[in-house]
Amino acid sequence: MNGVINIIKPPGFSSHDLVNIVRRTADMKKVGHTGTLDPMAVGVLPVCLGKATKIVDFIQDDIKHYRCEMKFGIETNTQDVWGEVINESDIIPDIVSVEKAIKSFIGEISQVPPMYSALKINGQKLYNLAREGKVVERKARKKTIYSFDIVKYEEGVLLFDVRCSKGTYVRTLCHDLGKKLDSYGVMTFLERVATGSFNLENGVMLQDLRKHGKDFLIENLVSIEDAISSFAKVVVGKELLDKIKHGVRINYVKYLKEKPLEGQMFRIYVEDVFVGIGQYNIETDKLLLTKLFI
User: Fold this and answer.
1) Between the CA atoms of 128, 131, 137 and 143, what dihedral angle is there, to the nearest 10 degrees?
2) Which CATH superfamily groups domain 3-62+197-224?
3) What number is the average pLDDT over the span 220-245?
């Protein structure tokens, strides 16, 4: 069984919990998720099975779309409402100030990962250290905010949509926005609306998967090639099939109609059969196979 099941995660489950449920349902070991969601967060969580685990990184790299609610005037040790309150403020910014501050976050930003996160430093997960009362130095990381839009703002509670690069901590975004406005801020709700082509509309509910089991999983499995349908397509003749199977390095550039971009990803086909994924390197002017699926 090879493909991707797009599960809509309910609150109270970790991403690892969902992987275990899919693993038991499919009765197979080779299963992996495509980007951690906090236990209380909800929304899109594509889970890869079998050979599709080779495309986990590609799905993780896709742009993420979140809907988030935050509250001004409160700071917690986890940067969300489920943590311990450590600071409070009477300063509640007005809508004009919020709109102005939000604009300053669009583009490339620096984020310091929160202590309560699954990020590993020296082999230890930060949240384990945080639970022991330890705080370690974390280096700021560059992230990209593609869009940051207010949905509603009322009495210090902000509902917004954000599109961002992988690894962006939305609760840290709430925390930093609060600081920017000389107040505090905590995340009170988070929903992942989409990651790349996977969204709420084409997802399946976890309770339906648990209820209907393996047949339901198979019916809703997205093929590997459909999961990366945004990649350009290269088609070669069947005379290359044996070479591809045996690992011969073929430069596919000559099969392209247009000059590719640096790092551009391609789906490679032998006639109508999908065989793998390739990436273009501008320095060598080569498009080589990086993942083989046959």
Assistant:
1) 70
2) Pseudouridine synthase (3.30.2350.10)
3) 93
Residues with Cβ < 8 Å from 230, sequence gap 6 or more? 196, 197
Separation between Cα atoms, residue 190 and residue 199, nearest integer Å: 15
Can you identify the CATH homologous superfamily of domain 232-292?
PUA domain (2.30.130.10)
Catalytic site includes residue 242? no
- What is the chain's length? 294
Q: What is the pLDDT of residues 28-48, one digit of tens each?
A: 999 999 988 989 999 999 999
Q: Per-residue confidence at 110, pLDDT binned at 50, 70, 90?
A: very high
Contact present, 220 and 214 (Cβ < 8 Å): no
Residue 122 pLDDT grade (very low, low, confident, very high; cuts 50, 70, 90): confident
Residue spans of the domains in the chain: they are 3-62+197-224, 64-192, 232-292
Report pTM. 0.90
Which tokens sit at 228?
Answer: 């990366």
Q: In sequence order, what are the residues at sequence separation of 6 or more whose Cβ sits closer than 8 angstroms to the Cβ of residue 117?
A: 125, 126, 127, 169
Superfamily designation of domain 64-192: Pseudouridine synthase (3.30.2350.10)
Residue position matching structure tokens 């943590």: 83
Selected catalytic residue, list 38, 62, 80, 176 = 38
> Would you say the CATH fold of 64-192 matches that of 3-62+197-224?
yes
